[in-house]
Amino acid sequence: MASMRDIKRRKGSIQSTQQITKAMKLVSTVKLQRAKARAEQSRYYFNCMFETMQSILSKAKTVNHPYLRAGNSDKKAIILITSNRGLAGGYNSNVIKLITKGEFRKEDLEIYAIGKKGKDTLQRYGYEIKADGSDIVEEPVYQDAQEISRRLLESYTNGEIGEIYLAYTSFKNTVSHEPTLLKLLPVEMEDQDMEELDPQLENKEARALMNFEPADEEALTMLIPKYITSLIYGGLVESVASENGARMQAMDSATSNAEDMISDLTLLYNRARQGSITQELTEIIAGAEAIS
Amino acid sequence: MADERNFQVKIITPERVFYDEKAVMVEFNTTEGEIGIYKNHVPTTVIIKPGILKITEENQVKKAALHSGFVEILQDKVTILAETVEWPEEIDESRAEAAKNRAIERLKSKTPETDVARAETALQRAIARIQANKI
């Protein structure tokens, strides 16, 4: 049996770890509240954007627009949104798995990494990191998304890349987050899971009669970049919310695990203490008997 | 009686819901020119150019600088999806003035590398900001 002192020391170290995890949990809870509010606010914008895009696309089915066709290049660009810091459970590895375990060929990919963890991991695996925007994750603003989408669309129109994907973690609620791979370009017409995202798809008939100024094709050229930007922005804010949610959960379970370990060790410590007292007593009695 | 003329106007940016009230008329600048919308407009989607947004409510007029985005007009509802929109009190006039001069400068000293379209939008944006602030 370990000595009393060893057990005590071990307990102390676990206790201080627990204090840290507890503090981290509180911090990420606060951050989560903020990120969640932002994600919810931007969701409304995103839904409206999506509805409008769908109605335009359903009208413009026959239009042969470059954004609706696959590019000539085999190259695929992936925007990967991860966190800058670890200790968030499976948050980062789950998103990265979408890329490493997916059907992509490593040589075809260009990674636009947002978040240090994803960048470092993929770099280690030997992926080509085209750009790194790690500082965006802390406080994503719309301009960041604009900048990224501008760059990507430029290389898309130049024919350097043929497809654009977005890998992020979608925020369902505080406890459930889902790593998601979204195809940004070429724009795909039907995206089934959006129906559930937006239950109040109203005015369906009104939409069918919608006019566009300027005409369809020109409108597409102007709207698609905005659409992509809003998707990227949505991905950013949702990922930040998910990151904090994941970290909160991870830290919560770490705290309760520490609690368990401490109670086990307390039991062990008390047993060791009792044992040593009993032993001392027996020794004293034995000594006293020997003298008399 | 007044209710017959009112319709819902919603202005949404990625960061917040900017405006959500009933109004009699909204006016703004689009790629096809300036337009004003009353209730029962034909359903239309238009794309915004930098300019002044004017919302006429029952008993007051509100103005804002509207820079980019698009508008979805339905018969009894107008939704403006704006990337940037500001109330006059949120605008820093000296900054807008500086941006205007910068854009003019860039357009004057045109070199082949100058992104003319971008400089022009910047100029329009600055002008819209300054005008919105004056009223």
Features:
heterodimer; A: 292 residues; alpha/beta; Helix Hairpins; Pyruvate Kinase, Chain: A, domain 1; 2 domains; five-stranded mixed β-sheet; B: 135 residues; alpha+beta; ATP Synthase, domain 1; Single alpha-helices involved in coiled-coils or other helix-helix interfaces; eight-stranded mixed β-sheet; 2 helices; 26% helix
Please outline what is shown here.
The complex is a heterodimer of chains A (292) and B (135). Chain A is of the alpha/beta class.
What does this entry look like structurally?
The complex is a heterodimer of chains A (292) and B (135). Chain A starts with a helix and ends with a helix. In chain A, α4 (142-157) packs across α7 (216-291). Chain A is of the alpha/beta class and 292 residues long. Chain A is built from seven helices and six strands. In chain A, α2 links the parallel β1 (76-81) and β2. Chain B has 135 residues and is α+β, with helices and mostly antiparallel strands. Chain B has helices at residues 93-108, 116-134, and strands spanning 7-12, 17-23, 25-30, 33-37, 44-47, 51-56, 61-74, 77-86. In chain B, a hairpin with a 4-residue loop joins β6 and β7. Chain B is elongated, with a radius of gyration of 16 Å. Classes of the chains: A alpha/beta (292), B alpha+beta (135).
